[in-house]
Design brief:
Blueprint lengths: L32 H6 L40 H13 L4 E5 L2 H9 L7 E5 L4 H13 L3 E5 L16 E7 L11 H11 L4 E5 L4 H4 L9 E5 L13 E5 L2 H14 L1
Parallel strand pairs: 2-3, 2-4, 4-5, 5-6
Antiparallel strand pairs: 1-7, 6-7
Organism: Fibroporia radiculosa
Family: Belongs to the trans-sulfuration enzymes family.
GO molecular function: cysteine-S-conjugate beta-lyase activity; pyridoxal phosphate binding
Length: about 260
């Protein structure tokens, strides 16, 4: 009997399974979520941990030596962040993930897609920082914001205007009143009437463990990782996830500009 043990995939380099969600174009049988969240994977073959560490090393360096490498300055990216983004994408049923300094930084990047004259539909119960940012956009940037009771999906319909409605911003559950929104129903209504509008969901209160909005029609999802994604009250961070390549490119371009 031949020994084919050398052909086995190392435990620390398992392929990333994709979501079983029908909204994704490519799918294969996924692992259970508990396996996904516990498995450390290598984002690409060029940066495998040479020792097969079960915990990703923290790169405490500002700069990287070399010419033309993937990393040059840690503000732009480093291997630790790449692993984190890969892991967040995996557990969020996402093709793309970006890690930033806070949840509000994530929303700020997302809303920079908006231009003067754009219209936004948002809930009537929002996180305070979100409400302040929308107020700033309305007051200073010429963006129209409609606040509606998003617990009733049809309340968004009168405000959906093709060519004007650019974004529908949802929280579910909301902060602070914990109102629950039917993401799939609202997404269907929006796509039917305003197919170019972007559906954004704040998933902070649930985290990918309990809810993955991309599986229910959302275009972009963001979380304040300071809260339940971290869980230890010892850091501040935000994440942005999406499946659409065009939105990922816009997000990446905005990140570079803000960098």
């Amino acid at each position: 009997m031949s020994d084919d043990s050398d052909k086995k995939i190392p435990v620390y380099d398992l392929p990333t399974p994709e979501s079983e969600s029908p909204s994704l174009p490519r799918s294969r049988q996924p692992y259970r979520f508990s396996t996904l969240i516990a498995t450390v994977e290598t984002p690409n073959a060029g940066h495998q941990d040479q020792h097969g560490s079960s915990s990703v090393p923290i790169y405490q360096t500002a700069t990287f030596k070399g010419v033309g490498g993937q990393y040059d300055y840690s503000r732009s990216g480093n291997p630790t962040r790449t692993h984190l983004e890969h892991h967040i994408a995996k557990i969020s049923s996402a093709e793309h993930a970006f890690v930033v300094s806070s949840g509000m930084a994530a929303l700020d990047i997302i809303t920079r897609i908006l231009k003067p004259g754009c219209e936004v539909i948002a809930g009537d119960d929002l996180y305070g920082g979100t409400n302040r940012l929308l107020t700033f956009l309305r007051t200073n940037m010429g963006v129209t914001v409609h606040h509606v009771d998003t617990t009733q999906a049809t309340t968004v319909v009168p405000y959906l205007s093709p060519g004007k409605t650019s974004m529908v911003l949802l929280e579910t559950p909301t902060n602070p009143l914990l109102k629950v929104v039917d993401i799939a129903r609202i997404s269907a209504l929006v796509k039917e009437r305003c197919p170019d509008a972007i559906i954004v969901v704040d998933n902070t209160m649930m985290s990918p463990y309990l809810q993955r909005p991309l599986e229910h029609g959302a275009d972009i999802v963001y979380d304040s990782a300071t809260k339940y994604l971290s869980g230890h009250h010892d850091l501040m961070a935000g994440v942005i996830t999406c499946n659409r390549d065009d939105l990922a490119k816009v997000s990446q371009d905005l990140l570079h500009k803000k960098n």
